[in-house]
Amino acid sequence: MQTQQLGQSDVRLSKIIFGGWQAGQDCWLNISDDEIVNAVSAAIELGMTSFDTAEEYGDGHSEIVLGKALQGKRRDVQILTKVRWDHLEYDQVIAACEGSLKRLQTDYLDLLQIHWPSGSFGSDIVPLDETLRAFEDLKQQGKICAVGVSNFNLSQLQDAVEICPIDSIQNCYSILFRGLNHADLLHFAQANQITCLAYSPMAQGLLSGKFQSDIQFPQGDNRRQNRLFHPDILPTSLAVIEELKQIAEDKEARLSQLALAWVTTQPNACAIAGVRNAEQVECNLLAGDIELAYEEYEQIEQIAQPILDKLGQETIQWDW
């Protein structure tokens, strides 16, 4: 497994990162704790060493499951987690970090991130410098190794780097949805040695190629609100996917593997792949063997353009 330096820190991440949202079970159905634990073991055995989670995922349940699964393996892995958007006051950040450390059964975090900017989802506005002062203090105390932000736009990221070194930005990014592309956000991050962590690189399973036009998600599944699955968008999504399948077949790969390779072959970028079981881990890691030529990358861009045009300047994949 190839690795990527995390910003300006001494931490190195696996290019494909284990995504822990599903482990929280909230917003997902039919997730088994035992299968997640087995998937973690498979990931480490196969060379995936980085694990991303958040206190928000299942109100801490994801962190608890990962903490259990990573016992005895801490020296071999990197743990990434996030502070909720309504826990951004100084004392709240400190308390959130302590809570994550306890649930994850560790005494330090490789990366702590602001999950969403202050004010998101109707939360109170907290000055960014107050929040990042808490992050800096945690770093000085050795409780975190690096500082990251998530779901920030370019202006918010620029404000953050004026306050303290930012090692990563985690935004929604895939062939079908470009949450890192707007307003040159991706270029700014790369120019300032800020590692790009792409979440939902497989578009919540859409880039597995398994869904048809009649797909309906049950209540409780967050994909009901994913713009890519909306009835007025889905036909375009599926048409683009049919063309992408041919490129994957030509490379003797699955479409999901092509989607991950598209992210990981970009400079200074890692893909956070959501996982339900060990079989998915093994499939995801095979994406590391795929190399994309410039011509293939350009072909993918041309194929994806209709869905990118359809979505316009949307920066969030869901209509929350």
Describe the structure.
It is a single chain. The protein has helices at 33-46, 61-69, 90-104, 128-140, 154-163, 185-191, 234-250, 255-264, 278-285, 294-311, and strands at residues 3-5, 12-14, 16-19, 50-52, 78-83, 111-114, 147-150, 168-172, 195-199, 269-274. The protein has one domain: NADP-dependent oxidoreductase domain (TIM Barrel, Alpha-Beta Barrel). The protein is built from ten helices and ten strands. It is globular and about 50 Å long. Strand 8 (168-172), helix 6 and strand 9 form a beta-alpha-beta unit. An eight-stranded parallel beta barrel has the order 3-4-5-6-7-8-9-10, surrounded by five helices. A two-stranded antiparallel ribbon has the order 1-2. The mean pLDDT is 93. Helix 1 (33-46) crosses helix 2 (61-69), helix 3 packs across helix 4 and helix 7 packs antiparallel against helix 10. With 320 residues, it is α/β, with parallel strands linked by helices. The two termini are 35 Å apart. Helices cover 38% and strands 13% of the residues.
